[in-house]
Design goal:
The chain is built from five helices and 22 strands. With 364 residues, it is mainly beta. A hairpin with a 2-residue loop joins strand 14 and strand 15.
């Protein structure tokens, strides 16, 4: 890459799910070692091409990726349903990307080319996406089989059966009262800045409406802070309703039960590895400052029975360790690289945001 291109951002089209369906990944079936054959052997699974891509997609914020120089970008994809035909219980497999070209790419940003055809990006030499690391996994049978699995596979297919089985297993956990643990304030480090989260909401949730929770993250004044500001990356705290940091608890005659959502998005760290001074998602707080945001619960988005009239519930933040922080303002850290994943804070103590919850009664 030319030295003048190093500061340029690129946009590209590479769909891992489409690449899976086109058989561009490699899957190996691994034979276990034995006394006669101490080294494991690998047999390539012949993945047939399920669907060739002939579309000329328009540039948009979903299918296309925008990547700065020396940055990373994550994409997620599930196995197509047909892949399950290749797998057998008890067998071990390895899976990887063998390397390949990306022809649809160009310099610029998605906002500059939004709506234009992907074929307009092919005026450059192809990019080479190098081979990935190996992912190894074993196919196992659940200890407690789902009684309806075979029927669902026959009638709806494997992916629908997997989704329905997940609902069934969540219900079993709920009935067994497996409520997630919390991080209490007693785990705070006395030398760390004090952050607290408060939640305020009404006493009633109506099934035909929505429930608004006013949330405030406050930097408390303490002897440890001595009036000093801190800079932190609060996005994962500002999106607590989407991740595993919050839960809904139903208080029934059996005791507290965890109401698991249809799905929980994994915590994703997509920050670009650029100086904090150039990333406005980092914020500076002085003692007494706060960040405010709202969380809304919509009963119609939950499974039937999640909210029972005349029953008491809690919406609880389970507690969180702040991913990255340091003393000083963003200006002080204008050249600091925080990294793209949670990192140790060198010799700085962890900041713990303890648990907090709101209680409400459900009305029909």
């Amino acid at each position: 890459m030319d030295i003048n291109e190093k500061d340029k951002t690129i946009i590209l089209y590479w769909n891992p799910y489409q690449a899976l369906k086109e058989g561009k990944f490699v899957m190996l079936r691994i034979s276990p070692s034995t006394a006669e054959h101490p080294n494991r052997s690998a047999e390539k699974v012949q993945l047939r091409c399920l669907q060739a891509s002939e579309e000329d997609n328009s540039v948009n914020g979903q299918e296309f990726s925008e990547v700065a120089f020396n940055a990373q970008h994550q994409r997620m994809a599930s196995f197509p349903e047909e892949f399950y035909e290749y797998m057998r219980v008890g067998e071990t497999y390895q899976f990887f990307w063998p390397g390949g070209e990306i022809s649809e790419w160009g310099y610029g940003r998605i906002s500059e080319r939004h709506g234009r055809k992907a074929s307009e990006l092919t005026n450059q030499s192809p990019l080479w996406l190098p081979p990935s690391n190996l992912i190894e996994f074993e196919v196992r049978q659940e200890n407690e089989p789902w009684p309806d699995r075979d029927r669902w596979i026959r009638n709806r297919g494997i992916q629908a059966a997997n989704a329905e089985e997940e609902k069934w297993r969540r219900l079993q956990k709920r009935l067994r009262g497996q409520v997630p643990g919390t991080i209490p304030s007693s785990q705070r480090d006395p030398d760390a800045p004090v952050l607290s989260l408060s939640m305020h909401a009404g006493p009633l949730l109506h099934l035909d409406g929505h429930y608004n929770v006013e949330t405030k993250l406050t930097y408390e004044a303490s002897e440890a802070t001595n009036g000093k500001p801190i800079t932190l990356y609060p996005m994962d705290l500002g999106q607590i309703e989407y991740g595993g940091n919050c839960c809904l608890i139903h208080y029934s005659e059996r005791g507290p039960e965890w109401v698991q959502p249809d799905y929980v998005l994994p915590e994703r760290y997509e920050r670009e590895d650029k100086p904090i001074g150039e990333d406005d998602r980092f914020v500076t707080l002085f003692p007494g400052n706060c960040l405010e945001f709202d969380i809304e619960l919509y009963p119609e988005n939950h499974e039937r029975g999640d909210f029972e009239p005349k029953h008491r519930y809690s919406y609880r933040f389970n507690g969180k360790v702040v991913d990255w922080w340091d003393w000083g303002t963003r200006e002080d850290h204008r050249n600091t690289l925080a990294g793209k994943v949670p990192s140790s804070h060198s010799r700085r103590p962890d900041i713990i945001v303890p648990e907090v919850s709101v209680d409400f009664l459900v009305e029909s």
